[in-house]
Amino acid sequence: MGRVTATERRAVLLATAGLALAAGCATRNAVAPPVHASSRAPVPPALPAQLAHGPRDRPRVALTFHGGGDPATARALLTEAEKHGARVTVLAVGTWLDAHPDLARRIRDGGHDLGNHTLRHLDINAMSEAEARAEIAGCAERLKRLTGSVGSWFRPSRTPTASPLVTRLAQEAGYPHVLSYDVDSLDFTSPGAAAVARKVLAEIREGSVVSLHFGYDDTVAALPVVLEELDRRGLAAVTTTELFS
Predict the structure, then answer these.
(1) What is the 3 state secondary structure string of the chain?
(2) Which pLDDT does position 99 carry in this prediction?
(3) How far apart, in whole angstroms, are the C-alpha atoms of residue 136 and residue 108?
(4) Alpha-carbon span 1 to 13, nearest angstrom
(5) Distance, C-alpha 186 to centroid of its chain
(6) Helix-helix angle 129-147:102-109, to 10 degrees
(7) Could you give the C-alpha distances from 3 to 7, 14, 140, 194, 224, in angstroms and in order?
């Protein structure tokens, strides 16, 4: 049997996911060039403390990644996103940044958002006030040391939503809003690339915030399929800051 090309592999994945991309050349969505932190528009203060999705009347979505796991998958996912003109949001675990400090600059240099996903990725809603504060502050300190900023976004660990206590502690640490999501890819369950792509594309719509993860090969294989279909639908993958601006 001859060697299977990348194009052939992608065609098989699309067929397995039950997706039919339109034939012909689709015009890719224009995505703004990387925006430096100093020039980013602030998140409107009228937004609620916890955010699950952005405006439903604009053709934008945010792909958000939990920053952990094998750094090779992180680099592959960032490269694939940039190849498609997409920008993503990475919520990094503090201990992961300790192990791979170069990735903080890699993420920011690619024009992506970088935020806080706690220090050790434990069940933060079950912690005492002192423990939860240390988890948020510990990751924030690492982000500031590596990038000069604590980042715009906080996502609680081991839960899609933060308790009132954790929400307050995040605000005290400099995060006005807790970032949740309305589309869960379930890629961390390793269901196969086709299942990841199928679930995301079945649920995503204008304003969606999608939960994805670094560290999983299924996600690496599914991302090109997801991005191509978003292009076909006219949905731009932007940073969370852009989504809410």
Answers:
(1) CCCCCHHHHHHHHHHHHCCCCCCCCCCCCCCCCCCCHHHCCCCCCCCCCEECECCCCCCEEEEEEEECCCHHHHHHHHHHHHHCCCCCEEEECHHHHHHCCHHHHHHHHCCCEEEECCCCCCCHHHCCHHHHHHHHHHHHHHHHHHHCCCCCCECCCCCCCCCHHHHHHHHHCCCCCEECCCEECCHHHCCCHHHHHHHHHHHCCCCEEEEEECCCHHHHHHHHHHHHHHHHHCCEECCHHHHCC
(2) 98
(3) 20
(4) 19
(5) 13
(6) 70
(7) 11, 19, 47, 21, 20
Segment 76-100 shows an average pLDDT of: 98
The residue ranking higher by pLDDT, 74 or 17, is 74
How many angstroms separate the CA atoms of 4 and 137, rounded?
Answer: 48
18 φ, ψ (degrees, to nearest 5): 75, 30
